[in-house]
Amino acid sequence: MTRLKRHLGTWDVFCIGSGAMISSGLFILPSIAFAKAGPSIVISYFIAGILMIPSIFAQAELASAMPKGGGTYFFIQRSVGSFVGMFSGFANWFSIGLKSAFALVGIGAFLEYVVKGAVPYEQIKIAAAFFCLVFMFLNLFSIKSVASIQRYLVVFLFAALIIYIAGGAYYFRPENFSPFMPMGFKSMLGVSGLVFISYGGITKVAAIAEDTKNPHRTLPMGMFLSFFCVQLIYIGAILVTEGVLPQGEIISTLTPLTHGAFKLGGTVFAVIISLAAMVAFITTANAGMLTSSRIPLAMAEDDLLPKGLTRISRKFHSPYVSVILTALFLLCFILFLDLEQLVKVASTLMIILFILVNLAVIIMRESKIINYRPIFKTPLYPWMPIFAVVAYSFLIVEMGKFAISVSLGFILLSVIVYYLFVARTERKQSAMMHLVERITARELADTSLEQELQEIIHKRDNVVKDRFDHILESCPILDIPGSISKEDLFLLVADKLAERLELKSDYIIDLLNKREQQSTTVIEKGLAIPHIIVEGERKFEIIVVRAGEGIIFSPGERVKVVFVLAGSLDERNFHLRVLMSIAQIVREHNFSANFARARNESQLRMLLLSSTRKRQLPG
Questions:
Q1: Fewer Cβ neighbours under 10 Å: the N or C end of the chain?
Q2: Alpha-carbon gap, residue 304 to 449, rounded angstroms
Q3: φ, ψ for residue 80 (rounded to 5)?
Q4: C-alpha pair distances (Å), 278 with each of 22, 50, 99
Q5: What's the pTM value of the predicted model, to 2 decimals?
Q6: What is the pLDDT of residues 195-221, one digit of tens each?
Q7: CATH of the domain at 403
């Protein structure tokens, strides 16, 4: 099957994240928020930005460990399971689609400044539908084209806003901020929930992990740069707007920044800011089309949607079926639905997704899955994700009964679809099952999730298997629950080696004893590497041993991890390479704890194969 191609770098992620955030949250929402809390909305935006940080950290950790298309959906599905994963996939697709459709329709609010006259709502819809089709074709033909256009649009957008902020500093009137909190502290906090969704677009970039070069570094860096730059733009633009315009004028318009620009530079500057606003809506819709189209693709790969959605263009490397379906989805909202209440529902769904993402970090960490190896880790764990879950729960209450009721109905619909079409054929394991397994029965969880994570790690780190990997894939692994002597161990491994090397057991036992007499093969506490040279040519075998209570190599010396190496003389160079590889494996962070915690031979093998050691390729 044709796979997505990694085209995007840090600058692309920055532009996609920024474009997804700067939209109605800056150009329209401030006037609505101002009517509820007055000049204190600048604090509301700051608080909303602070509340977004835990989710950025959570998304960055999950994306660095599992850089897969689908983003939020993939993380939740693999951590909690398909039952919640189906809801998260539909909710993510639904909320991003609604925000993107709303962004396209929002262009109409500014067209009057460009065409000089009121624009009928039907024409606004037609214009939005036109742009929707334009971005559909761009996403079909080349993600590189999408990213390139996104760069130019975001550069223009930032340039216009920076000029607006810098110019407004000279016309700043402090008296416009009095009274600063006319509706009280509670209203200011309530508005934080209203404007919180302005920052939600930043987490969309996790959905394009498979399109990103070095996603474990590129995604976190791009997300953080985008968030901090946009946070500064939000605070600066709102401060300038409040400092330039009287309070009554801000409340009376849905385009406060355009009115502020008119005060600063007349009609020309007002048109420039209006164009910047339209660019912001276009970049939001563009990023929404790009990221949301990856969600049904990921769900189809997990058998939650028809397999036809996994088709990818061989020429353009775009998931064309998923892109077309997403575009049709957006067109339906643009042409047939009243978006005002639905956008509020989309915001509620997105907050629920943020709660699930932070829970996903906790579940993945506490499940102790061997192959969950994030390169970036959420700081202040577990307090930061716990804080996020509590804070977001309060934000949901602020969204109102209608949005909560529709969201609950959406959850119920997802549950019904899951039990009707997915539950009977469910094959994917989740981290939640591994967490349950730690508490209850060990047989509840299998290794399917760990195997999938191993493949993701190898792809993430561009790992090419070497000869040592291939030997580990089939070598014997002895898992001894109790304690045995060194002599009994040698009897066990000699039988295994004799069969594989076509030699006699007594001969191998004699070699092992002689090697131990020369000098102990216990190289550090708890680890031994007995290694012998056998007769013959092109022979090399490895046996891995775990002893729960330890192997007695000498009085007071118990070893719990043993690698037995046996090779012919012509393999001496490879013998040394294997010793170096084992040294790298056992020195990896938490190797001893992970080795002891592995439930069975399959997990032990997986732990060794998932090593981030340097591969020794031939030549």
A1: C
A2: 17
A3: -100, -30
A4: 11, 27, 15
A5: 0.76
A6: 877 887 776 676 666 667 776 678 788
A7: 1.20.1740.10
